[in-house]
Amino acid sequence: MTGCRRTAISGLLLGVAALFSGCAVGPRYSKPPATVPQTYKEAPENWKSAQPSDQIARGKWWELFQDPQLNSLEEKVNISNQSLKASLAQFEQARALIRFYRADYYPTVTAGTSDVYSRVSQNRAIASAFSKVNYNDLTLPVSVSWEPDFFGRVRHTVESARANAQASAGDMENLSLALHSDLAVDYFQLRTLDAEEQLLKDSVEAFQRALELTQNRYQGGVASGVDVAQAQTELETTRAQAIDVQVARAQFEHAIAVLVGEPASSFSLPYAPWNVPPPPIPLGLPSDLLERRPDIAAAERRIAAANAQIGIARANYFPSITISGSGGFESSTITNWLSGPSGFASAGVSALITAFDVGRRRAISEQATAAYNQTVANYRETILVSFQEVEDNLSALRILESEAQTQGAAVTAARHSLDLSTNRYKGGVVTYLEVITAQNTSLTNERAAIDILRRRLAASVQLIQALGGGWNVSNLPSVKLNTSPLPTQPPSNTGQ
After folding, report:
1. Which of 151, 219, 332, 396 pairs as cysteine with 318 (C-beta 3.0–4.6 A)?
2. Which runs of E-coded beta strand occur in 149-308?
3. Could you give the 3-state DSSP secondary structure of residue 483?
């Protein structure tokens, strides 16, 4: 009879589990729609379209600029940048939480042993002349407790943890992209400062020769002392400007040292002026942007996590069913402790439901829904900002390219004007004031041309960053528990 009863209870439990195993409550997740334009408004008609063979699509987008020094520095970011290591540790924490929550799918088993010596009162209410006063109690209990996931609480918790871990991975990739972009921008700032310093040093040499010419003319009685003083002033002013450029260069060099994980005191970059315009950047379609930006992918994964939280909140309306059992051995002496008669066992099922909570569950459910709506709004805002960043840098590159051509013509005209003024001064037609004016105009225009080049290089890097730097949403880790651990050094923009 006992065996039949146990069989009936087991069958009942299995039937209940089968009945409710597919009853997970909560909304099904689907990616929310977002408005995506058909084309980029600011892209020129002849702009280069992205092809599968483009370097930007392979992740190491900095190789587009074909600078070995830049390539070497960018590789160091993956290895030594401390902010990236901290982001990797944050992702590993999020991944560990998946294993923590996933453990709730399975029963919890506890075991232990105890040896208790007791002496009881002889005058207690149920005492008798035959009751033992002193005795040992040796126990070896094993307890099993399991709460089947009938209504999807555990399932949604694991889904939320997995989506949050993927969002953390997206944040890491977004940080990696930002760090690589910051390094490239700082590098080009430094190199164009080298070009500006070279320009100023060349101008110092030219002004030195002009001063010598003026001094010779003064000694010959052709020029006045005012001409000599003006030439001396122009020379020393330009020399001071060349020295001042070194302040900004040193600061960018120190910033690069931090990005590559090296002390600024022991890091240096050789002098190397940059005068090459930026290469064309492949664009692709606007719809590709949703798959290529890690911050968009992270925002979408947070929507999935928030959607799972709604399921967790709704599961609170249903009973919490727990299956438990215990067994083991208990004896007063160790000699027969593990024998059959010393064994004990028990099993049972309990169900607990909250009957009245003054609206707590409803409030939690409403909070989860509002949090979901917030993540959807943040996701759509991230997409809007992404398109803004692309359009901003496309327009900057288009306008700066036109400005660079105009500025190049201005530089050519200013140099010609300086040559004419210098010849006129040598011929005694004009005073040295005209030469100084021409010198200032020429130097100002050449520095402006370098500044435009600096802005074009920065806009190119920022456009690549706005396009996702060759990253793709398929690079997000699946964060399955049976996968091998991530490498200790996170690759940049290549996924896990």
Report:
1. 151
2. none
3. coil
- Classified as helix, coil or strand, 337 is coil
Supply φ then ψ for residue 27, to 5 degrees: -75, 145
Tokens of residue 445, six digits? 């225009």
Between the CA of residue 447 and those of 196, 199, 227, 250, 440, what are the distances in Å?
Answer: 6, 8, 25, 19, 11
Rounded distance between C-alpha atoms, residue 63 and residue 480, angstroms: 33
**Antiparallel, parallel or unpaired: β 108-111 and 134-146:** antiparallel
Q: Which of 49, 67, 164, 158 is nearest to 104 (CA)?
A: 158
- C-alpha distances out from residue 459 to 181, 245, 320, 451, 453, Å: 11, 22, 57, 12, 10
> Distance between CA atoms of 30 and 168, rounded to whole angstroms?
20
- pLDDT computed for residue 450 by the predictor: 97
Give the model's pLDDT for residue 360. 92
Cα separation values, 300 from 30, 168, 373, Å: 10, 12, 12
Identify the CA nearest to 206 among candidates 411, 417, 442: 442
339 Cβ partners below 8 Å, 6+ apart? 329, 331
- Neighbouring-strand partners of residue 28: none
- Tokens for 164, please give them: 């949050």
CA separation for the pair 493, 496 (Å, rounded): 9
Q: One-letter amino acid identity for 355?
A: A
Of 131-140, 223-232, 282-291, which range is least confident? 131-140
- Check the CA dihedral 390-392-398-400 and report its sign: negative
> Sign of the C-alpha dihedral, residues 147, 152, 153, 155?
positive
- Give the count of beta carbons closer than 10 Å to the beta carbon of residue 162: 24
Which residue has tokens 């994964």?
301
Structure tokens at 354: 């909250």
Which H helix or E strand runs over 135? Answer: strand 134-146
Model's pTM, two decimal places? 0.84
Nearest one of 145, 231, 176 to 61, comparing CA atoms: 176
Which of the residue ranges 78-87, 109-118, 133-142, 454-463 has the most confident prediction, judged by mean pLDDT?
Answer: 454-463
Hey, what amino acid is at 339? S
Q: What is the mean pLDDT of the chain?
A: 86
Is the confidence at residue 118, as pLDDT, over 90? no
Instruction: Find the distance separating the first CA and the last CA of the chain, reported in whole Å.
Output: 58
- Domain annotation for the chain: domains and CATH numbers: 21-107+150-317+367-475 (1.20.1600.10)
